[in-house]
Design brief:
heterodimer; A: about 110 residues; mainly beta; 4-stranded antiparallel beta sheet; 11 strands; globular; B: about 110 residues; 6-stranded mixed beta sheet; about 0% helix
Chain lengths: ~110, ~110
């Protein structure tokens, strides 16, 4: 199984809402990633988890809170987002953190009103 | 900050022609990868080339890497309509960074 799944596919939320994005992989990968992608732009790395520990936080605002409950799951908790946070949020995983192919999920398209 | 710049930004070719896209980057790298993204979807890994390699092939894909010029190219031969997508290079730096380039939007006209 070389699939990374993400739920939900689409999400609309108000600026006062709290929501979570979920990502799951069953490839035994020990590194998982969150990216943000705006239209017609490349993905931008947000967070990296390696062996379930946060290893990279690319200066992401605290209204984005990642969580890695176990080696197969990765969550991104959202709170008090701004309209400019509307984007495609991509999850990826790789065997190890460095020097490895990343496998991407289909993404969650988020709209903040 | 962005590591890679891709050229051209957009490319339109006829089916059967070859497509070449280039990636330039700024700092030393461990490896360089190429990914494809169909509109609004997740990215699909195409090929990884390590810093000590100069050329790599995978099916209709050929990737070159010139570390002295800090550049890479992706050649897709005998293009098909299904190759229509955005193509991104991604570099893994020696200092833990992982960045995608600006991307090339390829349209293959049937």
């Amino acid at each position: 199984d070389t699939e990374v799944t993400q739920t939900p596919k689409h999400l609309v939320m108000g600026m006062t809402n709290k929501k979570s994005l979920k990502c799951e992989q069953h490839m035994g990968h020990r590194a998982m990633y969150w990216y943000k992608q705006k239209a017609k732009k490349p993905p931008e790395l947000m967070f990296v988890y390696s062996y379930e520990k946060l290893s990279i936080n690319e200066s992401v605002p605290s209204r984005f809170s990642p969580e890695c409950p176990n080696s197969s799951l990765l969550n991104l908790h959202l709170h008090a987002l701004q309209p400019e946070d509307s984007a495609l949020y991509l999850c990826a995983s790789s065997q190890l953190h460095r020097g490895e192919t990343q496998y991407f999920g289909p993404g969650t398209r988020l709209l903040v009103l | 900050s962005q590591q890679g710049e891709e050229d051209p930004q957009a490319l339109s070719i006829q089916e059967g022609e070859n497509a070449t896209m280039n990636c330039s980057y700024k700092t030393s790298i461990n490896n360089l990868q190429w990914y494809r993204q169909n509109s609004g979807r997740g990215l699909v890994h195409l090929i990884l080339i390590r810093s000590n390699e100069r050329e790599k092939h995978s099916g209709r894909l050929r990737v070159t890497l010139d570390t002295s010029k800090k550049s890479s190219s992706l050649l897709i031969t005998a293009s098909r309509a299904a190759d229509t997508a955005s193509y991104f290079c991604a570099t893994e730096g020696t200092g833990n960074q992982f960045y995608f380039g600006t991307g090339t939007s390829l349209t293959v006209i049937p």
